[in-house]
Amino acid sequence: MQKLFSPVLALLLLLSIGACRSNKEELVLKGNEYFPLKMGVIRLYQIDSFLYDNYTGDIDTFSKVYREEIKDFYIDNAGDTNYVVNLSYYNIFRVKWEVQQSYSRKITGNYALENIYNHTQVKLLFPISKYKTKGSSYIWNLNMFNNDEGANVKYTSVFTSFDNGKRAFNDCVSIGLQKPEAGAVNNIYEEVYAKNIGLVYRHIDRSDFLTLGKRGGYEIFVRLLP
To answer: How many folded domains does the chain comprise?
Structure first.
């Protein structure tokens, strides 16, 4: 009886484990495709900035189209390949694109990093999977490699469609602050990356209504153009 019972029990146990794994199985990707690094790639972005004066209540608005191009690469001391990105604006008087600033990007280990003026931020954390939008097991510090105040972010949605107001995208991942603030004090940081494209949207709100009841601070929207 014991010999008959043990194999049956083992079989039932295996079936049970298999069912649990099937129910919990989630799509997992390394994530490199959301942070593509390839020489010669050019993207156009519209950047809208709003500066709020909390004394006068005035709002200064600036809107400009910028071109981002991966122009060069180099190997750093860690042996990682860093891609040099030029951000340019179009000079209508000189009739040409002129570089405003350069920065670098690389993927190393589980991190997608962007370095601007020796200030490195962790843009994406790999691998990317659906279950990691839940709970606190997949939160990272955007500023873990610089001296800025900690900013804990997480994936707020993955593998979903997104419309940035200029164009619709499929298969996107969204990043946001773990505890954003909205109201008297606004502290919003959002980024959306599309598969095989990269950044398609960014929204930063650092404004408040703490002085004279008028809004002060700034707000920025970055949108990839068609």
So the answer is: 1
